[in-house]
Design goal:
336 residues; 19% helix; five-stranded mixed beta sheet; Sulfite Oxidase, Chain A, domain 2; binds molybdenum atom; alpha+beta; 9 helices; binds the ligand Nc1nc2c(c(=O)[nH]1)N[C@H]1C(S)=C(S)[C@@H](COP(=O)(O)O)O[C@H]1N2; Protein-methionine-sulfoxide reductase catalytic subunit MsrP; eight-stranded mixed beta sheet
Length: 336
């Protein structure tokens, strides 16, 4: 019963080695996790740790559709920075398909339907595939990655995401030598997404892109959860991208398509205002936005989200050791 037969798309280096004891244990934990979704979250393992960082005002009280999800801890996790309380991560959002106010996505995405959900991976790959999110969740090794999250609007968070490296997914489809870029697309469904109805300056669906080297970097996370549970709709359920050294708008939500290609793909914010938002969008305190400084940021922690607790913005959001080499031949003032 514990031995799982993998779907045919899951033929990769994973099959070259026997499943580790660890993976089997994780599968059991995951099964228990699903069963445990009915019990209060506070009685589960992670909550104890998070309580240290959360004040009583920051408790999540509302019942939601999120399921318990565990992840192995990661060497890449932020050290020495308090977590942003869960309810802030759940209620201070940018997801224009569900409204442009920070509190609107949490309200308007409440009934967003994320099952069934498929992700199509096409283009410059040997094995194009359409995956069911349920199979992805069953077969990928989930890690917890606590990452700094820096919006181009100069606010920031520190969030315990759950997910797996995008590289693990791309290895399955075997990119060809022509695959120089990876394009991503959010769901287009005006019936469910009020922001896609009527006039909008954004030409939906929301699209984003990375170079293949950025996509393959071990930090680049296909994200399926946060704070020990699956993602809430407002955070991009069931699957979104997190690229921690880039501005938050690169972290495209509710992905339905991934397309590998030779040419740089268009990206939503760059199309809208090319002088303000580039393709690269690396966090950079030395390159200001035309309308505001990027040297510091408002960290969203406990207390009011409008508190004036500012911290310095770090080059590549603090991930320079892992990613600076990707840009050694690039003028970052021109390629913002
Ligand atoms: N499809 C889609 N993805 C999106 C956005 C959006 O409006 N639509 N907003 C982006 C921006 S600007 C940010 S800062 C992050 C916010 O993610 P969070 O709400 O989980 O913090 O999502 C990004 N992904
Ligand atoms: Mo953002």
């Amino acid at each position: 019963m514990l031995i799982k037969s993998r779907p045919s798309w899951f033929l990769s280096e994973n099959d070259a080695t026997p499943e580790s004891i660890y993976k089997q244990r994780r599968d059991i934990v995951k099964k228990l996790g699903i069963a445990a979704a009915a019990v209060p979250f506070a009685s589960q393992t992670h909550a104890g740790l998070f309580d240290v960082f959360s004040s009583s005002n920051d408790k999540v009280t509302e019942q939601d559709s999120r399921m318990a999800l565990e992840g192995a801890s990661s060497e890449f996790s932020t050290k020495g920075l308090a977590l942003t309380p869960e309810n802030k991560v759940l209620t201070y959002n940018n997801f224009y398909e569900f409204g442009t106010g920070k509190g609107e996505p949490a309200e308007q995405a409440k009934n967003f339907k994320t099952t069934p959900w498929t992700i199509e991976i096409t283009g410059e790959v040997a094995k194009p595939v359409t995956l069911d999110i349920a199979d992805v969740m069953k077969n990928m090794e989930i890690e917890e990655r606590i990452y700094r999250h820096r919006c181009v609007e100069a606010w920031s968070m520190n969030v315990p995401w759950l997910g797996f490296p995008l590289a693990s997914l791309l290895h399955l489809v075997q990119p060809t030598s022509k695959a120089k870029y990876v394009a991503f697309e959010t769901l287009y469904d005006p019936d469910q997404m009020p922001g896609q109805r009527g006039f909008s300056s954004i030409d939906y669906p929301y699209v984003e892109g990375l170079t293949i080297a950025e996509a393959m970097n071990p930090l680049t996370l296909m994200t399926v959860g946060l704070y020990g549970k699956t993602l809430a709709p407002q955070n991009g359920a069931p699957l979104r991208l997190i690229v921690p050294w880039k501005y938050g708008f690169k972290g495209i939500k509710s992905i339905v398509k991934i397309h590998l290609l030779e040419k740089q793909p268009p990206t939503t914010w760059n199309l809208l205002a090319p002088d303000e938002y580039g393709f690269y969008a690396n966090v950079n305190p030395n390159v200001d936005h035309p309308r505001w400084s990027q040297a510091s940021e408002r960290f969203i922690g406990e207390g009011s989200v409008f508190s004036s607790v500012r911290q310095e913005t770090l080059m590549f959001n603090g991930y320079g050791e892992q990613v600076a080499s990707l840009y050694k031949n690039l003028d970052l003032k021109r390629n913002y």
